[in-house]
Design brief:
heterodimer; A: two-stranded antiparallel sheet; 2 strands; 2% strand; globular; B: alpha+beta; 28 strands
Chain lengths: 224, 794
């Protein structure tokens, strides 16, 4: 309510009845004004809404931001947005056509969500990976707080990134139309690639999806 | 088991008696020949005399055992009363302390300084005030103890006639005291120094002072006597109530008693009773002098107890007699000559004793208070035990055998009271103990007014449910917009801005670290919406759920089994159907409890009625004539299946006819809202049984409207910020509301008062709680927050 006194007219809410086009269409709040424990998420989402393609700005933390939390919140946001890609994949990627989680023919990825890693169909792998990531990233054990995160927990982000990236790569190599469609809307893969590169969460060898610039060049390529 | 041993023992004791009786009759026949002093005659006389004494002795034995049993019983009862008293005293202390604290707080606030430290010491035991208070309470209520006083006088006279001397009385008093376990118990208490002992000790000290004050005469009392006095005071006091308790419907008790008496129906046993009573009667006499001064009979009684020794030594037996009641006295005189004639008196005494017991049982509250009073005095008496030279050795000597017999007899004769004894016998009288004791007492005294007073007090607290967070549902990445429970199972579904819905089984919890709340992981994730999922409804069968999203669609899902493997393979058939007609975000859904009909409201300005699963699912569309009014929430009118209610961003609320899609009524929501522009209704629900519509407003209000007139019934500022969500419990007694002030509140719908407030979620931007829900059949409530969590309270 401090804020209400300060800026009487701005109450940042999506009230019932809000039109989709007005979703979150409020005046930006500076990071300093955000007194919530979810400030980092708010900041990231605000930046994404402002310009989804401005990856660099989205990935620029506010001054003095704890890097662990910053990475954690970004990864949450990636996983969340990947739900959108998963929804698209559900319509196209079925166990009959994509019996295994593959990108290039080089690797078959085993689904780590099971007690013994399993050769799940791609769509299951996608869902399981996202579900598992959701559980891990929300785990009270590893991430009890969204304000400060232990180093040992931050170390877990890398493996989440690696697994999640395979969804991009599978979509890119096997459902290219769908991937492009989604990438055009969200620039998610580009942002993700920049993110893992910037924070060194994955080795460059594993980043097999070509950069957006390259993919635009190779735009005529058909999906497998 | 319990009964067998004592019975056999009893039989053994009784064995000689028939023989003895036979001898007596023979002897009596022969006694007519006494004048012929022949050697055989003398021998025979001696023999018969001896036989008579033997018989009497055996009778005494029986009687003693009987008395021991009774004593054990009384002791148990006394302990129970002590426990009760301690409990009460403790409560009083607590209350007093709380009051003092409040006062000091007030004082501090008002004058800015601490109040006397003395006043604030935690429940220490300066009992006096309370005790006095209690005296005050008890005294006016008491009535004259004429009947038992008469009895006591009779007894006293009787005792004198049979030659019981004061010394014997003293001895007996000591014995009674020891039997009542005063000494051992007290010393135990002192040694243990446990809380009960402390209470006792403090009280007794105070009480002793008080006694001294009251007694005025200040005659040095031997400790044993005092102890006896006090132990008997309770009996006497309860005795007192005979007068009032004329009507006691305790037939069982009565029979039981008479049985017991029957077993002990011999002179000796009665004599013992009388013995005890005689002491009392003496005491009574002693008190006679003070009687006039003290208006209250019960006070008199109490005082008399303490004075009796004085009077006994000071006043003659003659005076005691003169106090005796006319008729009984006469009878007594007539019968006093021979042993066997005493039976009449004895039977009377028995009756009195029965009455006494009845009185005790029917009036435990009084008895309790009395016991409390007495207790105050008891403990004084342990330290100078040695004074009691006379009685103590005998007491010690007698104790072992008495205890054996007493316990065994007690268990056989008074088996009804056994459980009580067992419970009360446990000396460590902590909370539970006293509670248990109370419970037992209560059981014995069904018609007692102290019942609710003792037992319901703690229970009421228990029954008033407070909800506590038990489950935390973590797995969403962004704010949870809606949640709904399965109609039967402990299962719920959440809908989030992270594009998914999740199914949670509250029985599948993740072992929590150490927190009080359990973490739950979802068993299924529904992916289908593009963008945020905003609304949710679960069918009454629990087989389907419906979700509305910012993508304008309504998805119909077949709810997977709540025991599904979370990492099972993808089953496309979970998404059964997609209802497409809205052209903007679907913000509200409501499902009919019996008909398979679904209402949806969208920011495209329409409310739509669906029949999910049918070929053309869209049944009807409801629109307003006014432009730019967007429905925010819809609900069926629960007590009129042909109507539905919808609220709008303009803060108008309309009731529509479902069939005709026409407005039936416009509720006065707008008129009763603040004039400010931004006061939309965030949620509208209908009472499950009453024609009442409840609206949650952005202006922090919850308002209640009559569905028939549209008039405002009640309006209240319910939260510190916009009220976002409402849920009425299935019985229609409580209302749950959620607000962006981060709290959920539970309201009593009858009194419209807040029963509980729980701060449940954190803020994201200016949003906090999006939805709340009652489980339709189980004691769960849940809240959904913008912090991506859902919480379930039990």
């Amino acid at each position: 309510m401090k804020m209400a006194a300060e800026v009487v007219t701005i109450v940042r809410r999506n009230r019932p009845g809000t039109k989709a086009e007005n979703w979150c269409s409020w005046v930006e709040e500076s990071f300093e004004e955000m007194d919530s424990t979810l400030a980092v998420q708010q900041f990231i989402q605000q930046a994404i809404r402002k310009d989804v393609s401005n990856v660099d700005e989205i990935l620029t933390p506010p001054d003095g931001q704890d890097e662990g939390v910053w990475k954690y919140e970004h990864l949450r946001q990636f996983c969340m947005e990947l739900n959108g890609l998963a929804v698209k994949l559900q319509s196209e990627c079925n166990p009959e056509t994509c019996t295994q989680m593959t990108a290039t023919e080089q690797w078959i990825f085993l689904c780590a969500a099971h007690k013994t890693p399993k050769e799940c169909p791609a769509i299951d792998y996608t869902r399981h990976t996202l579900d598992g990531a959701a559980c891990l990233l929300n785990s009270n054990k590893y991430f009890p707080s969204r304000v400060s995160i232990k180093d040992s927990s931050v170390a877990k982000l890398g493996s989440v990134c690696r697994r999640v990236y395979r969804i991009f790569s599978h979509a890119y190599f096997h459902h290219r139309t769908l991937f492009d469609e989604y990438e055009n809307e969200t620039c998610l893969c580009r942002r993700f690639t920049s993110f893992v590169t910037k924070y060194n969460l994955m080795s460059k060898d594993n980043l097999i999806v070509p950069n957006l610039d390259e993919s635009q060049v190779l735009g005529g390529e058909s999906d497998a | 088991m319990i009964e067998e041993g004592p019975v056999s023992q009893h039989g053994g004791q009784l064995g000689p008696i028939p023989g003895g009786i036979g001898m007596v009759t023979k002897q009596q026949d022969e006694s007519g020949q006494r004048p012929q002093y022949s050697m055989p005659g003398i021998l025979h006389f001696l023999q018969t005399e001896w036989a008579r004494f033997e018989m009497e002795r055996s009778q005494w034995e029986v009687e003693r055992a009987e008395l021991q049993a009774r004593i054990a019983f009384l002791q148990g009862e006394r302990k129970g009363q002590e426990n009760l008293k301690q409990d009460l005293v403790r409560r009083i202390k607590m209350l007093e302390f709380a009051l003092k604290q409040e006062r000091s707080k007030y004082h501090k606030l008002k004058y800015g300084m601490e109040i006397n430290q003395e006043d604030l010491k935690p429940p220490s035991f300066d009992k006096k005030n309370e005790d006095d208070q209690m005296d005050g309470e008890v005294l006016p209520a008491s009535n004259s103890g004429v009947s038992w006083r008469q009895g006591r006088q009779l007894l006293r006279q009787y005792l004198q006639e049979i030659g019981y001397t004061d010394t014997i009385i003293d001895v007996r008093s000591a014995r009674v005291r020891s039997l009542l376990g005063i000494q051992p118990q007290l010393s135990d208490n002192e040694r243990e120094g446990g809380p009960p002992a402390l209470v006792n000790g403090e009280q007794s000290n105070k009480r002793a002072n008080e006694l001294n004050r009251q007694m005025g005469k200040k005659v040095p009392l031997s400790i044993g006597e005092r102890a006896l006095l006090e132990s008997e005071a309770s009996i006497l006091n309860t005795f007192d109530f005979l007068g009032t308790d004329g009507v006691v419907d305790d037939e069982d008790e009565d029979e039981n008693l008479s049985d017991e008496d029957g077993m002990a129906a011999d002179d000796e046993s009665e004599e013992r009773l009388e013995k005890r009573r005689s002491i009392k009667s003496v005491a009574n006499e002693g008190m006679a002098g003070i009687d006039d001064v003290l208006a209250d009979p019960e006070t008199q009684e109490a005082l008399s107890e303490f004075d009796f020794l004085v009077s006994e030594s000071g006043e003659g037996a003659g005076e005691a007699r003169s106090h005796g009641d006319g008729p009984e006295w006469e009878e007594r005189k007539e019968t006093s000559g021979e042993w066997h004639v005493d039976q009449q008196v004895l039977s009377k005494l028995k009756e009195q004793y029965k009455k006494e017991r009845k009185g005790r049982k029917s009036r435990p509250k009084r008895a309790t208070l009395q016991a409390m009073l007495e207790n105050l005095g008891t403990e004084d008496d342990n330290s100078p035990n040695e004074d009691n030279d006379n009685s103590l050795p005998r007491t010690m000597a007698d104790l072992p055998e008495l205890d054996d017999a007493g316990v065994q007899r007690g268990s056989s004769i008074l088996f009804r009271s056994d459980p009580r004894k067992q419970i009360l016998g446990v000396p460590g009288s902590d909370d539970e103990n006293s509670e248990a004791a109370l419970g037992d007492l209560a059981r014995l005294t069904v018609s007692n007014d102290s019942d609710p007073y003792d037992i319901s007090a703690p229970k009421e607290v228990v029954f008033r449910k407070t909800w506590n967070a038990k489950y935390t549902l973590r797995s969403h990445f962004d704010g949870v917009r809606a949640l709904a429970f399965h109609p039967v199972e402990p299962v719920l579904i959440t809908a989030s801005e992270d594009n998914t819905l999740k199914l949670w089984n509250l029985q599948k919890t993740v072992p929590a670290k150490k927190a009080a709340s359990l973490d739950v992981e979802p068993v299924y994730t529904f992916r289908g919406h593009i963008g945020s999922v905003l609304s949710l409804a679960v069918s009454s069968s629990g087989e389907q759920c419906f979700s509305g999203g910012i993508d304008s669609t309504i998805r119909c899902w077949n709810i997977p089994s709540s025991n599904i493997d979370p990492y099972d393979s993808f089953e496309p058939s979970v998404l059964q159907d997609t209802l497409v007609a809205h052209t903007d975000a679907v913000w509200g859904l409501s499902i009919h409890s019996t008909k398979m009909q679904l209402l949806s409201c969208s920011s495209d300005g329409t409310v739509r009625l669906w029949s999910p699963g049918s070929k053309s699912p869209l049944l009807n569309t409801f629109t307003l004539d006014t432009d730019n009014d967007i429905p925010t929430s819809v609900d069926f009118v629960r007590c009129d299946p042909s109507q539905m209610v919808a609220s709008y961003t303009s803060s108008n609320t309309y009731i529509f006819d479902i069939e005709t899609a026409k407005q039936v009524l416009k509720l006065d929501t707008k008129q009763n809202s603040d004039a400010s522009v931004d006061n939309q209704i965030n949620c509208v629900v209908n009472h499950p049984t009453l024609p009442v519509t409840i609206t949650a407003h952005e202006d922090r209000h919850i308002r209640f409207f009559d569905n028939n007139t549209g008039k405002l019934i009640h309006s209240m500022v319910a939260h510190l910020d916009a009220v976002t969500s409402l849920s009425v419990d299935p019985n229609g007694l409580y209302l749950l509301s959620g607000s962006h002030d981060c709290s959920i509140r539970l309201w009593n719908l009858d009194s419209k008062t807040c029963v509980q407030e729980i701060t449940a979620h954190r803020k994201k931007f200016d949003e906090s709680i999006h939805d709340v829900a009652f489980h339709p059949s189980k004691p769960y409530i849940a809240s959904a927050g913008s912090d991506a969590l859902a919480k379930v309270f039990v």
